[in-house]
């Protein structure tokens, strides 16, 4: 990883949704690299840099599906919230639910933003662009 590389981790088990994410983030930055985890356990291994993920870069942003195999997005958020090393990584949670309690739970567990599925592609792309720019600017301000 170069110092200019920006890393995004998409935690998404659906190939169709992952392809939508890749299309949406394609033009965010020439330095953006997208990695993928297929389930919550793989996401935690990636973020913790354990096992086969020891040499992966730390993501600048995580796009997390709420409904995943093995461990759901809320389990991943709980794990991240208890780790001082990982709790500062911004997470955007994607959910099909519009239930206010689920959205509040995600935000209470540390999600920076919750995006409800399904959304129009242009709306989805703009929401991702805004979140990405906001978090990359906050990283620049800290550096």
Structure explained in plain terms:
This protein starts with 5 loop residues before the first strand and ends with a helix. The longest helix has 22 residues, at 121-142. The protein has one domain (6-142): Rossmann fold, CATH 3.40.50. It has 143 residues and is α/β, with parallel strands linked by helices. 42% of the residues lie in helices and 18% in strands. A five-stranded parallel sheet has the order 2-1-3-4-5, sandwiched between helices. It has helices at residues 15-25, 40-48, 73-81, 100-108, 121-142, and strands at 6-11, 32-37, 61-65, 91-95, 113-116.
Write the layout of secondary structure elements.
Layout lengths: L5 E6 L3 H11 L6 E6 L2 H9 L12 E5 L7 H9 L9 E5 L4 H9 L4 E4 L4 H22 L1
Helix pairs in contact: 1-5, 2-3
CATH classification, class level: Alpha Beta
Shape: globular
Q: Beta-strand percentage? A: 15-25%
CATH architectural designation: 3-Layer(aba) Sandwich
One letter per element, helices H and strands E, the order comes to: EHEHEHEHEH
Decide which structural class fits the backbone. Answer: alpha/beta
Number of domains: 1
The N- and C-terminal alpha carbons lie at a distance of 17 Å
Return Rg in Å.
14 Å
CATH superfamily: Response regulator
Number of strand segments: 5
Low-pLDDT regions: none
Mean pLDDT comes to 88
Count of helix runs = 5
Helix content: 40-55%
Largest sheet: 5 strands, parallel
Fill in the CATH topology: Rossmann fold
Strand order of the largest sheet: 2-1-3-4-5
């Amino acid at each position: 990883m170069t110092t200019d590389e920006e890393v995004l981790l998409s935690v998404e088990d659906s190939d169709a949704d992952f392809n939508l994410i890749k299309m949406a983030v394609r033009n965010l930055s020439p330095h953006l690299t997208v990695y993928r985890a297929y389930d919550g356990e793989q996401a935690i291994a990636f973020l913790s840099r354990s096992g086969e993920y020891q040499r992966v870069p730390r993501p600048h942003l995580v796009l997390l599906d709420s409904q995943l195999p093995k461990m759901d997005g809320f389990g991943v958020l709980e794990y991240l919230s208890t780790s001082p090393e990982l709790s500062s990584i911004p997470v955007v949670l994607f959910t099909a639910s519009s239930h206010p309690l689920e959205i509040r739970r995600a935000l209470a567990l540390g999600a920076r933003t919750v995006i409800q599925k399904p959304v129009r592609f242009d709306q989805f792309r703009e929401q991702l662009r805004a979140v990405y720019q906001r978090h990359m600017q906050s990283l620049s301000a800290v550096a």
